Amino acid sequence: xxxxxxxxxxxxxxxxxxxxxxxxxxxxxxxxxxxxxxxxxxxxxxxxxxxxxxxxxxxxxxxxxxxxxxxxxxxxxxxxxxxxxxxxxxxxxxxxxxxxxxxxxxxxxxxxxxxxxxxxxxxxxxxxxxxxxxxxxxxxxxxxxxxxxxxxxxxxxxxxxxxxxxxxxxxxxxxxxxxxx
Length: 181
Description:
This protein is an alpha/beta fold. It has one domain: Rossmann fold (3-Layer(aba) Sandwich). It has six helices and seven strands. β2 (66-69), α3 and β3 form a beta-alpha-beta unit. The longest helix is centred in the first third of the chain and has 18 residues, at 45-62. The model is unreliable at 169-176 (pLDDT under 50).
């Protein structure tokens, strides 16, 4: 299971990542945390970034399931772009994707909007979609989204598997489902 999250930017990212990894190991699964692959020390910053990219893509390819933190990262309503890429890459590979965030309220309720003749626009003048989804439709429809954090998401996956439910395939709008834990 690949553990996609902006949590890799935490000051305690290495230690923080060990917790979901341990929880993944309980049901006999392996947690693939992006920071476990360590780039060679002699690389330039650009080569290090390229090395990390290839290591993360390889880990997603190896994973049976991808979990992703789609909580707001550096702005209201916007998950981490790296995590969004990982979700898209996993979706292109047909991997089941489970995501989590603390708030499943619709995006339009969280993003400050101004009513205009066109509809609601954000402070930068862009339309704010109103599909009732907690994140952009391209992420929401690619994943089963659980309200809470990584541990609730991992428990929801384990519960689904115990009930004999297969991991969710990627099938467009039919996959826009949310669970409150």
